[in-house]
Amino acid sequence: MSVDMKHKRTSPKHEKEHPKIRTVILHNVLITLLIMGVSTIMAQAFFHYSRNSTSVAIIYVLAVMLVARYTTGYIIGIIAAVFGVFFVNYVFTFPYMNFNFSIDGYPVTFLGMLLVSSITSTTTTRFKKQSQLLNEREKLLVEAEKETMRANLLRAVSHDLRTPLTSIIGLADTALNDSPEMTEEKRRELLEGIREDANWLLNMVENLLSITRIQSNGSDTQPHVKKVPEPLEEVVSEAIQRYHKRYPDSELKVKIPEDFLMVPMDPTLIEQVIMNLLENAWVHAGTRGPIELDIKEEEKNVVFYVRDHGVGIEPERIAQIFDGCAGAIDHESRKGMGIGLSICKSIVMAHQGDVYARNYEDGAEFSFSLPMDEEELTEEEKL
Fold first, then answer.
1. Which of 145, 163, 210 is CA-nearest to residue 337?
2. SS3 per-residue string spanning 97-119
């Protein structure tokens, strides 16, 4: 009874494996027949005009190499090598349509051909397996990097959510207090603080949704977004309107290229990047000076520069400021800047761009680039 149950449990697995094995065998056989068939036609043509069996042998050595390259395992390549040796002897050496290994020089020639074909087959197969191992190792490294980034994001999220939520609860409790000393002006100040923290949380949710958008459009190994050509001026204008709506007191100076540019991008995500960098400059500059948004076309890229006239970035933070780690969090502020910058990096990297941070004269400068790939632009326009 238990044996039957075990057989029932394992049989579905075997049923799934058998079709896969049959598919691999069928693929190997079809590829081998195709390559050897084409090689035979070429050998017939060469032999018809030159009557030189050496050229024919070289054709079959190349055929064996191709069989080893496009099939799985060693056996098919070795079988193809043996077939090539005997086929050349049978069809292309005198006496034709007969096997004859006794003629002077033939045994050595055919033994050499067999060795060369077999070594070529096994070497090609070995290189192919090594290439597969390297690809798997690269995938593991990418996965490890993604896990590290995910852990950094979770640390930043925990900090950035806890602080404003605690503040909202405290401000709401104070505002609800019926103390006679509570003036209307003080109550309004508390409500403005609640609104400010609520807006910060709203921006946090928008950032998290941006990450979800990248993951839903991406592959397992490389973050990816669907890019379409978008008017640069319209995307920047939307981001600026969102920023002014949230921070009406901020002074923003914008420079944009005069040429009409269509940039391959996901407009929603790039608006979020611009919004994050402008907000970061406003919140963490330490001053209320003007913020500059300067956009330039440099070679085959469009580069966005966001500069403030504040206290700058501490040198030890610059290297990890986009990683969402604890070192990139401003503990002097009620809100961290880790997750916003980390998401900026994720979005820009998914666009195959670069992102940078540095101290600039009397403040900090954050910049990111988007590639203006003409081939990619043409393909998207066709779609």
1. 163
2. CCCCCCCCCHHHHHHHHHHHHHH
Q: Enter the DSSP assignment of 355.
A: E
User: Which segments in the chain show pLDDT lower than 50?
Assistant: 1-3, 5-8, 13, 216, 218-221, 326-334, 336-337, 375-383
Cβ-based neighbour number of residue 48 at 10 Å = 8
| Helices vs strands, H then E, count in the chain | 10, 7
Q: Which amino acid does the sequence have at 34?
A: L
Euclidean distance between CA atoms 361 and 293, whole angstroms: 16
pTM of the predicted structure, to 2 decimals: 0.54
Q: Give, for 369, the enclosing helix (H) or strand (E).
A: strand 363-371
Q: Let me know: does 339 contact 204? Beta carbons within 8 Å.
A: yes
Helix (H) or strand (E) holding 237: helix 232-246
Residue of 325, 327, 330 whose CA lies nearest to 310: 330
Report the pLDDT value the prediction gives residue 104, as an integer from 0 to 100. 58
From residue 299, give the alpha-carbon distance in Å to each of 201, 257, 263, 293, 302: 38, 13, 13, 19, 8
